[in-house]
Amino acid sequence: MDKHTDLLVVGAGVLGLATAFVAHERGQTVRVVDSDERPVGSSIQNFGHACFTGQADDAQDVADRARAGWLRSATAAGFWAGQPGTYIPAMTEAEAQVLHELAAHRGPGQVTLLSGRAVGEALGHPDLGALSGAHLPRDMRVDPREAVPRLARWLAGEGVHLAWRTHVTAVGDGVVSTNRGEYTADQVVVCPGFGLDRLYPEIAERHGVRSSTLVMQLIDRPAAVPADLAMLTGTSLTRYDAFTAMPSAASLRAEIAEREPDLVRHTANLMVTGLADSLLVGDSHDYSQSPEPFIDEDVSALLLDRATTYLGIAAPRVRQRWLGRYADSPSTNLVLEQPDPRTTVAVVTSGIGMTLSFGIAELALAGAPVPAR
Ligand SMILES: Cc1cc2nc3c(=O)[nH]c(=O)nc-3n(C[C@H](O)[C@H](O)[C@H](O)COP(=O)(O)OP(=O)(O)OC[C@H]3O[C@@H](n4cnc5c(N)ncnc54)[C@H](O)[C@@H]3O)c2cc1C
């Protein structure tokens, strides 16, 4: 392939590769450039949870496109994309009320209310003692350690040129300068994730973009807990836009602040997803431009204790701990800007990039205006 392509994508995380995938489907010539030698960013550090129903009403069109993109790319590239939906146990009246309101708002195709017993059984813990619960049937799962590397390999096999260990130093008007020379393209989509500040400091500053760091753990999965599990809990209902838009969200927030002050102090979104023989457990949130690299053992222990209580796991064996990192903004979920007519900068600035990237890829390629938060 020569130095010119129809499209050049900066960043081989899920957003960059989703953009490359959609452009390749459309018959464009594509090059993807990444500083690292393989995907090691946010896109492999996460839960592999595509939480379409949890997104705001005005993001549902993007969520539908994203869902379709995951299914097409999984079929093409041969990675697992499960459709088990998300289970949410309601342990208090306040949690049950928010789920009830969302079910009434979205309807049974998006939210099915469950008995406490049924949600416990779905989690592999029938004696959980939940008051009630909900199932979000449209939500999906991938294995984050498999999906993005597989997609990269498949794209390379299809003739998309992946330039690894190639650090982009400047982009302008179809010219991309790197530490290994220059490339040109008719269109450039820049998806640097939490690296935005290094390439476009003015854009990052305008949106207050910083890093969010999250304490994560991988534990053994007992046979009773499903391998394709996706479980959200009460703290999740105070984070995702669909739930926080419900009338009872404020009283739930107050109730959790009183009942679980430690989780609230660490800005937790207590959730668990399953893999073949393990469970991904998280998470806390800390915000900084230059995060501390250290994992706080008290935070790990807190998250592990609460998560395993939900699942009835008495003696969890921790296999791995890590500090995940993603780009965050206090003012928007998505930075989508065109610094010049050939360049689009796209960064998901909330923990929803695995959910929405295939839909955002279509917006980035169209240079479309940003949908409301
Ligand atoms: C612990 C954790 C849990 C999460 N859970 C979920 C979840 O359950 N559901 C969900 O939807 N989302 C979740 N997220 C968020 C999701 O992972 C991110 O939003 C998404 O992965 C961002 O993808 P990306 O492609 O923008 O970034 P990345 O995957 O970080 O990719 C960016 C790439 O750009 C490259 N790059 C940067 N600068 C340059 C440069 N100058 N030159 C060349 N290359 C460059 C980097 O090397 C990197 O490979 C979670 C995130 C974390 C950390």
How would you characterize this protein structure?
- This protein is α+β, with helices and mostly antiparallel strands.
- The chain folds into two domains: 4-78 and 143-207 and 331-366, 3-Layer(bba) Sandwich (FAD/NAD(P)-binding domain); 86-137 and 210-328, D-Amino Acid Oxidase, subunit A, domain 2 (D-Amino Acid Oxidase, Chain A, domain 2), CATH 3.30.9.
- Helices cover 34% and strands 28% of the residues.
- The chain is built from 13 helices and 20 strands.
- The chain has helices at 14-25, 42-45, 60-77, 93-106, 116-122, 144-157, 196-199, 201-206, 241-244, 249-259, 261-265, 297-311, 353-366, and strands at 4-10, 30-33, 49-50, 81-82, 86-90, 112-115, 132-136, 140-142, 161-163, 168-172, 175-178, 181-190, 210-220, 230-232, 271-274, 278-282, 286-288, 318-328, 334-340, 343-348.
- Strands 1, 2, 9, 10, 11, 12, 19 and 20 form an eight-stranded mixed sheet that branches. Strands 13, 14, 15, 16, 17 and 18 form a six-stranded antiparallel sheet that branches.
- The relative contact order is 0.20.
- The mean pLDDT is 97.
- The structure holds flavin-adenine dinucleotide (FAD).
- Residues 10-16, 33-36, 39, 41-43, 45-47, 49, 51, 167-168, 191-193, 195, 198-199, 214, 216, 282-283, 324-326, 347-348, 351-355 line the site of flavin-adenine dinucleotide.
